[in-house]
Amino acid sequence: MASGIPGRKLGYEGSGGGGGGGNLFKRTLADMERQLQNALLLRSVRQRTQTMPSIFSFSYGVGGLVCNSFTAAEPQRLVSSLPSASSSEFGLPRKPELLLVSSVPEDRSPVSVSDQLRELERQLLLDDEDEAEASVSCGSAATHAEAIQRLISPPPLLASPTNSSSSTISFASCSPPSSMPSPPLPPSSRQMLLDTATALGEGNLDAATANLTLLKRAADTRGDAEHRLMAVMVTALLSRLNHPQVGISHPIADLRSPEHFAATQMLYSLSPCFKLGFVTANSAILDATKDEPKIHILDFEVGQGGQYAALIQTVAERLRLRPAKSPPAIRITAIIDPSSPFTNINAGNLRAVGDRIKKLAERFRVVLHFNIVSLRVAELGAASLGCETGEETLVVNLPFVLSRVPDESVSPENPRDELLRRVCALRPRLVAIAEQEINTSTAPFPARLAEACRHYGALLESLEAAAQDSSGPERGRVEAGLARRAVNAVAGEGAERVERCEVLGKWRARMSMAGFEPVPLGPTVVESIKARLASSWPNPGFTVKEDAGSLALGFAWMNRVLTVASAWR
To answer: Coiled coil where (predicted)?
Structure first.
């Protein structure tokens, strides 16, 4: 009897007697069962598996997409749910499904049993045709389900980006490095960050999400500086991934909170690069106003008043060394812009800060007056600020202030340049500026991330060096604040990006256009800053880089300039 397969005949035993000859139906039922059982033991029965199509390139829950998820709880359902490719896809004939029969029911008729046995033998013979195809050996149901699960299970996924609490790395519990080893970083992890930013910029969300899956595993807020940087940048990229149009999942309110304000003040105190920016401003102000009887300082961000506590002590020390010299009368005017999103951070506490500064001045026998004015940039003028032209020496203090004033990339009115022009119109003796040396204002998204990696990577390393003896929560709070800054600077767009730093060259152009010219920082200022660094932070990784003609001082960690201080008039 023909098998229905070209070139094959079914089981003739030969032409001899004893019922051995003839076709399949001339053998007894017992012989057929025994023969087929032996065949089952000798053959490796294989279930064909098709190459997985693209449906198994899992989408990791981006936007409205959902993750494919499977479990091993129902192996039969899993097998039936696998996509079956058409014969045209693989160029192979479509094979019938394999029918597994463990035993033949005794109550079936011989014809029915024969039909089933014939079908089973036919499929067993069919199995010999494709020896080269990949296959999975038949085994127990549990083994089969386990193999299927291994095949289809995706790698661990990122938390759903639609939930900001789970899609970002929490910095609320940041603390100095733990003794536990951190997870290994992927090779060229920084390059992977840049590739992810490029993929996001090009709209390739699958590639970006796949990279973030690996990077998030390595991010560790309790690891070394590189692991912490990875945590910060992964958070920024996740924010961008979650809100590709708006560009930020962290509201500006995070940067206006009392916690962030406190973290910023701690940063100014803990980091040599920031602290020396304030020290340079004080030194430049006092150098420009020496021997002046009345000094009026306009300040657009008094903060907690730490800079003025140091200034008062320096004035008191000068008076001690020159007892015949009359103490100058110092007036500080704190300016609040009611249109600024940061006005309410410390406005309610500003009066208390002024009271503390005045009490400190009284203790050191320094005459000091403190007042607060609320003015928009367009309202700034000598009269509105209470300036006494010709009666006092006016200076303006702007350390780490201008980078938060919107520029031309945010508003056509360009409040940043307008502020500088109005300050110049006051004709101050000196304007002191300090800013971070990084372009997060006009640089496009991938370039901002590259800049941020270099800048914040060095900054985190410098904090590790500066706070080696610090085991308390202060450093953790500082780094949590840095993370919020970095996320806003990297992931934000438009008015939502308020961390808009610029490099020294751009500040020089702005100051020049506003009518200012640079003031060299004299040798007394430069040497005092270098001496302060050597005495307070002796780590050789911290250096002071002097610009040509002492027109600016850069404060660097491992030759990477992080902040720059300069003076203008």
So the answer is: none
